[in-house]
Amino acid sequence: MAVTYSSTRRGVAVLAGLLLLSLGSVATSQFEEQAEQFFRSGHTNNWAVLVCTSRFWFNYRHVANTLSVYRSVKRLGIPDSHIVLMLADDMACNPRNPKPATVFSHKNMELNVYGDDVEVDYRSYEVTVENFLRVLTGRIPPSTPRSKRLLSDDRSNILIYMTGHGGNGFLKFQDSEEITNIELADAFEQMWQKRRYNELLFIIDTCQGASMYERFYSPNIMALASSQVGEDSLSHQPDPAIGVHLMDRYTFYVLEFLEEINPASQTNMNDLFQVCPKSLCVSTPGHRTDLFQRDPKNVLITDFFGSVRKVEITTETISLQPDLGVLESRDKEDWMDEELIESLKYAEQLPVAQIIHQKPKLKDWHPPGGFILGLWALIIMVFFKTYGIKHMKFIF
Amino acid sequence: MAAAGAAATDLEVVRGKRAALFFAAVAILLGLPLWWKTTETYRASLPYSEISGLNALQLRLMVPVSVVFTGESVPLDDQEKLPFTVVHEREIPLKYKMKIKCRFQKAYRKTLVYEEEALSMGSIQEAEAMLAESQEQAEGSLTVYVISEHSSLLPQDMMSYIGPKRTAVVRGIMHREAFNIIGHRVIQAVQAMSLTEDVLAAALADHLPEDKWSSDKRRPLKSSLGYEITFSLLNPDPKSHDVHWDIQGAVRRYVQPFLNALSVTGNFSVDSQILYYAVLGVNPRFDPASSSYYLAAHSLPHVINPVESRLGSSAASLYPVLNFLLYVPELAHSPLYIQDKDGAPVATNAFHSPRWGGIMVYNVDPKAYNASELPVRVEVDMVRVMEVFLAQLRLLFGIAQPQVPPKCLFSRPKGEGLMTWELDRLLWARSVENLATATTTLTSLAQLLGKISNIVIKDDVASEVYRAVAAVQKAAEELASGHLASAFAASQEAVTSSERAFFDPSLLHLLYFPDDQKFAIYIPLFLPMAVPILLSLVKIFLESRKSWKKPEKTD
């Protein structure tokens, strides 16, 4: 009696357990679906702003950094019309380049990142702090062509990559000016106020790069830097044939990581944070996620580096009458008039004077070099020797 | 001698004190305010109070409806009560800071003679034709005709009808509570034709935070001053297919009337191009069952990116661009079908991406390969293509199917492909969206100016802000009085002015000077002057305190 009683109880318990399990699985799958929806990013388009702030031949590696990131971003799907590339662009045709029209990123000249379809939007002296801030905030003079604008909206995910020489709280632009971390934070705040981004990923590869993201205060920004305050970011490897260092360490390892990403991969940001540990990079990479709403492990790399669109199948059509005979003759006349009018308007569309107007470049004053100083010293010595020593008797 | 000397030094000391005090007075009273005034950033005055008042703006959207009763539609004693006006007001429950109320102002009246004649015609189409020639209705207003319960104008089981122009027909009832019941039916029909909650939710989709993830798909184009529409023919295999399409004729015949109907909402420009050797980025798979190739639904998002770089849409204009692509697959991959999520081929063989455009795959008729050698001449059937493209254009603009009340006869759009009240719905949605955008821009500008202290506001920027605020208020007034066309124009002006003010190139915040740099500039200028003045002031103060204390001690 007792045995059967306990077995029936066990049977009932097993049945109840099975029922609960099935109910639970149904409920969790529903919850999972809803949860998945919350963790997905709500963006519809992707933009990238890639800035190299250095010029001159010995800063070859910064240009190679930026061009390599440009290549990865294009490979993963962001079109040129959505990339704003700012480079000094004086490497490929530099008289010191032993292989003209190329910029290599791996030693032994494995990979030419310059190629033949690089579209540089701001080149040479156009890469200034003012232009960079104008691109970010959108306060661009009306004559700027479309390729030089950041036409993002509130559903855009933007990737901003900056490289060059930097210090504690500033980044040097083209050896003549600098941008501070407060200006950058204010520019991001202006973007946020006008809802010019949905989420922003900021990557910086300079010395003391972490100081640049310390002052951010706008939401939905994730930042990565190649080194902490007080540390220097080091370059990777020199190439004996070209004679300069080809890439920086942090960007080199980030690119190796990105080579394994394809447009459909599910790798998340936590893996990107692990790239380039101290043993490889010598500096300590840092990241900042407190302003970001989602958990980094739910953020896909392709949310920022790639460009995947939401599509919908078209299921409806409109029924059209195949032939509207009466209207045709009337429409033809309108069409002819339209052509004439349009050809007249075209010439006025290009205000050439405004397009070619550029700020005149201020000539930098350099202190006189050794030869000039020596020459003048000689002249002054001769002068005083001829016309009277007594003023200079303390020197001679 | 000593006394005279002492008196002389006393006089000098007093003169010295006075000089020091005068210096200090000039420096503090004149110099300090002058320095402060000349180093502050110039800000023209802005209407901050009015801008913060815009946040609490209450929008009242009024739809004027005239309800016309025919002879036998309602009981006689109810007919005696005509004409009068009933107002039906409802608040739209959106979680948005701007409160929106919908107000349907129904003016009840009897029919005029010609209307009575028209409504006793045989079919609804004839009735509409007769009614349409005599009256032209303002945008936003609607007319509802109430016919008798047993009238044969509508099929017997249908209670209402919604027509392509701004008219609807509803059956009357012989009942004590006739007006209430009919009023309810009228409201149902009118709401379907003008404002419902989902229209406004779609318009404000970008401003409502909670719908960020759920309204992914229904994402209409943002309101803009103009649009650029590009039709592209992609021919990846010119060796096999010699494709011809009469795009100019098709645009003239089918697209242009549609765009003319929409011309109130912005400037449209249309262009077209043919691209050779442009392939889709995805390899189609072979389906042995139907011996055709297919593109699975999950690979469709990867199709667009490789093609977009070749479309050249970035050079066209600053307006948003809509791309419509017609892809003729290669001979090796023909015929090509698009499959939906369940694996069934899609009837239209097309898909679209919100805020970007649409792609349609056009399969060449296999009979064309029979007799001739390659390349085969292909004449694209523009009617089939334009049916799909116009449907996609409607979806991209957010002209969706309305919530039709039950037992309602609904006429399909014909002619231009757009019904007049659908345009009205678009204008309502656009006006609300424009007002929301303009208000957000102005509020953000005011907040920014508070946060970042070194932004200069010039006079012309200030005048744009004033104009924007005035336009927002005017638009709200016009919406409340039911003038949709002028409200939409005012809302567009509000958006242009506010965007122009916010994005003026002169608003670039002056490059920031950290505190230590400010000190480095001012200390060499002010310190050499301030130290002697301060020290002499301190000395004068100590001496005068001593001289006050001395008389107390010697008493």
Describe the structure.
The complex is a heterodimer of chains A (396) and B (555). By secondary structure, chain A is α/β, with parallel strands linked by helices. Chain A has a domain at 46-305: 3-Layer(aba) Sandwich (Rossmann fold), CATH 3.40.50. In chain A, 37% of the residues lie in helices and 13% in strands. In chain A, helix 2 runs parallel beside helix 5. Chain A is elongated. The N and C termini of chain A lie far apart (126 Å). In chain A, 38% of the residues are buried. Chain B is an alpha/beta fold and 555 residues long. Chain B is 45% helix and 19% strand. Chain B has 14 helices and 17 strands. In chain B, helix 1 (2-39) packs antiparallel against helix 14 (515-553), helix 4 runs antiparallel to helix 5 and helix 11 packs antiparallel against helix 12. Chains A and B meet through helix 3, helix 4, strand 11 and helix 9 of A and helix 8, helix 9, strand 14, helix 10 and helix 11 of B. Strand 11 (312-313) of chain A pairs antiparallel with strand 14 (350-353) of chain B. Chain B: Its main location: endoplasmic reticulum. Chain B: The chain crosses the membrane at residues 19-36, 519-542.
